[in-house]
């Protein structure tokens, strides 16, 4: 909840500064100058985020959900739960949101929450781990050799127990991240069902209380700081008509809109696959040894998004 609050506060501050500078420049020098300021600030945010991921913590590329699921299934993923990856993932998702990318913090909150949960479990277990990290051998019959004693067996069992506790902490943290990001403790519980199902960790009421406490803590922090997460939404939350409802005569129009949107969705998928194929060809030439190419790619995409958002109101 604290991490989510900090991310929301940073989002609000960076967005307020970006839009204030854009509005001031637009009022003083016209739309083109305002869009130029908007593009410059957005590209700057994107540059910092892409540089952090490319040069500091490459494992933070993507949402982090596949990595969390892989860890819960017993795979070794070095670097995913380090302090540097936590700071880079948190900072980068704030920057890409404020840069104007069509992404949200909900998916990365799984990895961020999992990192927090893993860290809490690691801190609670650290003293016990240090007590059993010494492996002693009993003397063998041959000089220079030894046979493993009971202490070694105890160490193996404890390592399995420690790994289990860390996986539980990661799952609880990911579920708490979902609950705080969506303000939905039930959604966090459902997510935990899904995640614990693939990792063979039995869910119970004690684990479910984590999402409820996380959601309540987020609400309390927002109330204490007098912040509203809906300030990140540009459009009004309630755009219903004056009568406040719909009638059965609207159903055919809804069905027609659904059919049109389905066709547009298929067209969108085709265009997405085509553009992704082009980017894959470019990536095979540039990304293999040049990390700066990834940064430039991110900045170019951010520039396109900012130009669309800047000139769209003037066109429509």
Record keyword descriptors for this entry.
2 strands; mainly alpha; globular; 10 helices
Task: Report the count of strand segments.
Answer: 2
Question: What's the mean pLDDT score?
Answer: 80
> What proportion of the residues is helical, as a percent range?
over 70%
Strand content of the residues, in percent?
under 5%
> Helix and strand succession?
HHHHHEEHHHHH
By helix and strand content, what is the structural category? mainly alpha
- Pick out the low-confidence regions: 140-144
Please outline the major beta sheet.
Answer: 2 strands, antiparallel
What's the helix count? 10
Radius of gyration: 25 Å
How do the strands line up in the largest sheet?
1-2
Kindly summarize this structure in a few lines.
With 316 residues, this protein is mainly alpha-helical.
Layout: helices, strands, pairs:
Layout: H1 2-29, H2 31-56, H3 65-72, H4 83-99, H5 106-131, E1 137-139, E2 146-148, H6 150-182, H7 185-199, H8 205-225, H9 251-286, H10 291-315
Antiparallel strand pairs: 1-2
Helix pairs in contact: 1-2, 1-4, 2-4, 2-10, 4-5, 5-6, 6-7, 6-8, 7-8
Question: What does the model show?
Answer:
- The protein is an all-alpha fold and 316 residues long.
- 74% of the residues lie in helices and 2% in strands.
- It contains ten helices and two strands.
- The protein has helices at 2-29, 31-56, 65-72, 83-99, 106-131, 150-182, 185-199, 205-225, 251-286, 291-315, and strands spanning 137-139, 146-148.
- It has a two-stranded antiparallel sheet with strand order 1-2.
- α1 (2-29) runs parallel beside α4, α5 (106-131) runs antiparallel to α6 (150-182) and α6 (150-182) packs across α8.
- It is globular.
- Mean pLDDT is 80; it is low at 140-144.
């Amino acid at each position: 909840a604290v991490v989510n609050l900090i991310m929301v506060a940073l989002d609000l501050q960076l967005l307020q500064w970006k839009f204030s500078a854009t509005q001031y420049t637009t009022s003083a020098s016209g739309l083109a100058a305002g869009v130029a300021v908007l593009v410059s600030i957005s590209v700057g945010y994107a540059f910092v985020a892409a540089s952090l991921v490319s040069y500091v913590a490459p494992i933070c590329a993507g949402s982090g959900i596949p990595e969390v699921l892989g860890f819960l299934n017993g795979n070794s993923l070095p670097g995913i739960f380090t302090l540097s990856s936590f700071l880079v993932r948190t900072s980068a998702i704030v920057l890409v949101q404020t840069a104007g990318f069509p992404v949200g913090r909900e998916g990365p909150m799984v990895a961020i929450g999992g990192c927090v949960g893993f860290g809490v479990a690691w801190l609670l277990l650290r003293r016990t781990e240090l007590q059993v990290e010494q492996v002693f051998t009993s003397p063998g019959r041959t000089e220079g050799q030894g046979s493993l004693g009971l202490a070694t067996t105890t160490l193996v069992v404890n390592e399995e127990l420690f790994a289990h506790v860390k996986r539980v902490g990661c799952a609880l943290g990911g579920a708490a991240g979902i609950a705080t990001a969506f303000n939905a403790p039930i959604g966090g519980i459902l997510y935990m069902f899904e995640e614990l199902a693939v990792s063979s960790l039995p869910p119970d009421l004690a684990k479910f209380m984590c999402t409820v406490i996380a959601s309540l803590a987020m609400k309390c922090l927002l109330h204490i700081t007098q912040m509203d997460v809906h300030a990140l939404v540009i459009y009004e939350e309630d755009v219903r008509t004056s009568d406040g409802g719909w009638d059965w005569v609207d159903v055919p129009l809804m069905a027609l809109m659904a059919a049109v949107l389905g066709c547009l969705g298929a067209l969108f998928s085709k265009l997405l696959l085509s553009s992704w194929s082009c980017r894959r060809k470019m990536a095979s030439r540039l990304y293999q040894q040049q990390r700066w190419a990834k940064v430039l790619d991110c900045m170019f995409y951010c520039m396109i998004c900012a130009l669309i958002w800047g000139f769209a109101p003037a066109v429509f």
